[in-house]
Structure formats: structure tokens, C-alpha cells
């Protein structure tokens, strides 16, 4: 020891100074993403992809456990097909990337690169659903979509992103409504239990719902800077698409009926939430349940005889219990500490000659920085328990933060004051008129995030116009 380590990882901007720059620095320094060659596209690097894969694997399991099958539909949509449902095409038209040529040859009809795949599934269902026996159809696909965005940021808003999109068809409106609820709850469970991010569950207003949907359900999370992020949506289509695409089935009496549909999606945007909810000025913080490496062993004074052997033995022993790795490179321990803090690995295990003599290791948790000495004989019970504690603590910290940053506003002055001073979610009553919703957005840049399922009556009158209120809405500035 005593030697100063000159290889410290590059510093990141403090989040209090410039949150947007902090975000960009973390994305880069934690080696999650690089920029693609076409503006707004991203290269998800191995570490970023490993985290996404853990999220994806859990969600995929939940999707299958609820009876869905994975399928793969094409990347391309003929223009005529995209135009079949009027609201839908109007909603997506400004963001569609078009293919106009195949090689040198100009195409007779333009082809859209899918911005979402509703119309492809509808066309397929129209041909493949005939009888009530064919229902429900419960399909999901993992893939990428393209939306030509003007301003882009890695994960949060990119021209191409990865996601899953579920598309289902049911015999009755009620069945479709149940499915819409069920998948919203799957998303909420995933985000709360695995990503340790508390979410609000509710319905989008008419203005904010998905183009072509009957209604849209959403989970909304609060980021560290007090802005909201829509984190997953589930749409009830009723028979709107079925009528446009003529998707019918013969019921048990032999009468022709329209099917009732849903779609639901969760994307790599959730990686943005992960960074902005848990990250700090030392970098990323990854909840243990989705961390590719849950514990990193850093041998101390590894040139001394026996240290590396013991460290490798420890790794082998722990690898049956947790996702553990070892850094036995010749970089200085100080560099390694910083590097794995930047990457947000939940626990660091230090082991040097003195520890070996005492038959112990040092555990350092990423979320609090606390150190503890643990006897080797205790480690196999203590380490998994510590990972659980970290998972719980991250959720609790995020929930406390959200509660601190949730306010009530009864009029426009209060709404503006809260938004300018602390941001966060604002509970306010609404008359249901879209004109008020638009005025709030115009005056404050805050949008309606959701009409929560758990309603409260925080006042009698609309926050904007003062007329009788119908519902409570969560408002926030959002990503
Ligand atoms: Zn109003």
C-alpha cells in the first residue's frame, strides 16, 4: 500500500450540477451504450446488454407463465396496411421511416420500417381466426422498432429501440379488459420486484392514450431529478382494430362477432429508469436481482503468496450461490474499486493476506458504502442475505424519494410553484376537459401522467378551470 493510484477512472459530472450530463457520463463510463452511426441510434455494449437481458429474461418468463407464446413478425409493413386504422396511422405517421428502394429499383409501394406491429398482427389474425375455438390468441414478440425521433438520448428516446410487444385477441370485451389489467400488473411486478423501482398504476387520459386504443393503462416512475418516466403501457383496443381489419369469429351460436384486442409493450427505456432512479455521483447502482455480477472479488496484495489461490477458491465456492466474478488483473485495487462502483455492482468482496490469516473477508455494499467483516464460515449465508437487504433498501430509498416529491395542488399557482421548486408528482383534481389538460401543459410543460386506480379527493374543483372535478390526476414534467 502507500502507493498513490494514478489510474482512477474518469470523473463524472455531479448530478446536482447537471443531471443531463451526469446521465450521459454514467451511460458512457459504466460502458452501457455507444452512439450508432445514424443519429439517434445506439450500440448497446456487453455490460448494458447483460443488464437488459436479465430484465428481459424475467419478463419473458412472466409472459410465458401467463400463457403467451413468442412469435417473430416481419420488420416491414406495406404503406396500405399501415393506413387501415385511421387514428393509428395519424399517431405514428410523423415518426415512420420509409423504405422506397430495393437495390436500385424504386418500389411501387412504400414500405414502413415497423414503428410498432399492431397492423401486422391484425392482418394475421384476420386470416387465422375463424371460430371461438381459435380464441384467445396470446402472442408476444421480442424485437426492435424504429421511430424517427428529432431529439434523442440513449435508452430514453432513441430512433431504434428494443422491446417486447404483446398482441392478443379475445372473444369478449371483458376478456380483453382482463388481459389489459393482467399485463399491466406483470409490468408493475417486474419493475418493482426486480428493478426495485416503485410505480404508480393508472389510466392515461384520452389525450395521452395510444393511437387507436380504447384506453391505455400505464405504470409511471419518478426519476431522481423529479421528472416522471412512463415505464410500460398496456392498451385495450376493444373492437376498433377488428372492425378496421375485419377480424371476426363465429361464436357458439354460429353468429359472426368481432374479436376484442389488446397490445402491451416494455422497452429498453426501462434502462433509463434504472440509471436515473438508483444512480449516484459514483455512477450506476444495479439492483442485485438484475445485476449481471452481484459480487466482485478484489484480491488485495495479490502478488503475495497464496492470495490469488484463496481468492479463486472463494469464487468457486460462491459461484453456486450468487453471480460472482473476480478481477485478478494487475490494475491497482483503487482503480478496481472505482470501476466496479461506476458499474454499480452490488457488493465488493475484498480479501488480502490479513483477511486470509483471520479467515474473513470484507464486504462493501454499493448502495450505502458500508463495510463489514464476515468470517468465511458465515459468508455463504451472509452474502445472499446482504444482497436481499440491498434490493429492499434500493426500493425503499426510491419510494421515500417519490413520497417526498409527491405534492398536492389545488389551483394553477400552487401547481406552478411546486413544479418550479421541487418537481415530482403532483396530485390535482381535473374536470375531465381536454382544454384544461392542454392549458396545464402549455403553461407549465407538465403533462398528465395517469388517472391513478387509487383515487383520492384532494379538492372539489378542477385545478385549472375551477369547475367541478371528476378525477384525481398525477401531473409531472416527464421524459
Ligand atoms: Zn377544468
UniProtKB/TrEMBL annotation:
Entry annotated with the keyword Transmembrane helix: no
Record Gene3D superfamilies: Anticodon-binding domain, Bira Bifunctional Protein, Domain 2, C-terminal domain of ProRS
Domain of life (superkingdom): Bacteria
CDD domains: ProRS_anticodon_zinc, ProRS_core_arch_euk
Keywords: Aminoacyl-tRNA synthetase, ATP-binding, Cytoplasm, Ligase, Nucleotide-binding, Protein biosynthesis
Gene Ontology CC annotations of this record: aminoacyl-tRNA synthetase multienzyme complex; cytoplasm
Main localization category: cytoplasm
Molecular function, one GO term: ATP binding
Enzyme class: ligase
Pfam families: HGTP_anticodon, ProRS-C_1, tRNA-synt_2b
Reaction catalyzed: tRNA(Pro) + L-proline + ATP = L-prolyl-tRNA(Pro) + AMP + diphosphate
Function: Catalyzes the attachment of proline to tRNA(Pro) in a two-step reaction: proline is first activated by ATP to form Pro-AMP and then transferred to the acceptor end of tRNA(Pro).
Family, per entry: Belongs to the class-II aminoacyl-tRNA synthetase family. ProS type 3 subfamily.
This protein's name: Proline--tRNA ligase
Source organism of the structure: Ornithinibacillus halophilus
UniProt gene name: proS
Amino acid at each position: 500500500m502507500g502507493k498513490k493510484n494514478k489510474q482512477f477512472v474518469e470523473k463524472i459530472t455531479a448530478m446536482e450540477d447537471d443531471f443531463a450530463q451526469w446521465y450521459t457520463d454514467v451511460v458512457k463510463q459504466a460502458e452501457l451504450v455507444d452512439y450508432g452511426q445514424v443519429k439517434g441510434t445506439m450500440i448497446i455494449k456487453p455490460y448494458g446488454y447483460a443488464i437488459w437481458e436479465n430484465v428481459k429474461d424475467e419478463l419473458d418468463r412472466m409472459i410465458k407463465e401467463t400463457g403467451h407464446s413468442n412469435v417473430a413478425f416481419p420488420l416491414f409493413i406495406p404503406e396500405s396496411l399501415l393506413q387501415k386504422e385511421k387514428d393509428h396511422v395519424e399517431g405514428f405517421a410523423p415518426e415512420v421511416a420509409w423504405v422506397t428502394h430495393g437495390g436500385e429499383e424504386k418500389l411501387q409501394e412504400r414500405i414502413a420500417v415497423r414503428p410498432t406491429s399492431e397492423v401486422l398482427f391484425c392482418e394475421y389474425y384476420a386470416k387465422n381466426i375463424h371460430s371461438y375455438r381459435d380464441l384467445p390468441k396470446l402472442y408476444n414478440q421480442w424485437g426492435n422498432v424504429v421511430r424517427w425521433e428529432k431529439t434523442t438520448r440513449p435508452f430514453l428516446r432513441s430512433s431504434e429501440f428494443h422491446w417486447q410487444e404483446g398482441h392478443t385477441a379475445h372473444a369478449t370485451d371483458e376478456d380483453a379488459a382482463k388481459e389489459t389489467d393482467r399485463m399491466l400488473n406483470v409490468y408493475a411486478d417486474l419493475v418493482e420486484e426486480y428493478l426495485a423501482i416503485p410505480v404508480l398504476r393508472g389510466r392515461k387520459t384520452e389525450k395521452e392514450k395510444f393511437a387507436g386504443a380504447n384506453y391505455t393503462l400505464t405504470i409511471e416512475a419518478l426519476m431522481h431529478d423529479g421528472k416522471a418516466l412512463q415505464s410500460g403501457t398496456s392498451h385495450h383496443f376493444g373492437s376498433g382494430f377488428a372492425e378496421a381489419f375485419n377480424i371476426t369469429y363465429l361464436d357458439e351460436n354460429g353468429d359472426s362477432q368481432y374479436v376484442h384486442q389488446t397490445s402491451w409493450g416494455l422497452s429498453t427505456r426501462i434502462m433509463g429508469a434504472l440509471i436515473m432512479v438508483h444512480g449516484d455521483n459514483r455512477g450506476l447502482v444495479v439492483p442485485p436481482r438484475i445485476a449481471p455480477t452481484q459480487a466482485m472479488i478484489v484480491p488485495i496484495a495479490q502478488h503475495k503468496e497464496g492470495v490469488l489461490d484463496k481468492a479463486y477458491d472463494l469464487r468457486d465456492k460462491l459461484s453456486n450461490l450468487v453471480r460472482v466474478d473476480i478481477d485478478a488483473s494487475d490494475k491497482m485495487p483503487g482503480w478496481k474499486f472505482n470501476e466496479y462502483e461506476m458499474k454499480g455492482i452490488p457488493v465488493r468482496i475484498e480479501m488480502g493476506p490479513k483477511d486470509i490469516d483471520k479467515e474473513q473477508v470484507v464486504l462493501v455494499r454499493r448502495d450505502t458504502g458500508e463495510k463489514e467483516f464476515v468470517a468465511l464460515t458465515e459468508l455463504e449465508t451472509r452474502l445472499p442475505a446482504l444482497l436481499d437487504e440491498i434490493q429492499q433498501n434500493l426500493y425503499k430509498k426510491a419510494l421515500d424519494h417519490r413520497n417526498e416529491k409527491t405534492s398536492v395542488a389545488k389551483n394553477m399557482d400552487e401547481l406552478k410553484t411546486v413544479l418550479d421548486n421541487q418537481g415530482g408528482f403532483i396530485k390535482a383534481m381535473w374536470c375531465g376537459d381536454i382544454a384544461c389538460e392542454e392549458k396545464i401543459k402549455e403553461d407549465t410543460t407538465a403533462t398528465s401522467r395517469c388517472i391513478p386506480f387509487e383515487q383520492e379527493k384532494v379538492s372539489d374543483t378542477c385545478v385549472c378551470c375551477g369547475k367541478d372535478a371528476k378525477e384525481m390526476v398525477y401531473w409531472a414534467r416527464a421524459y
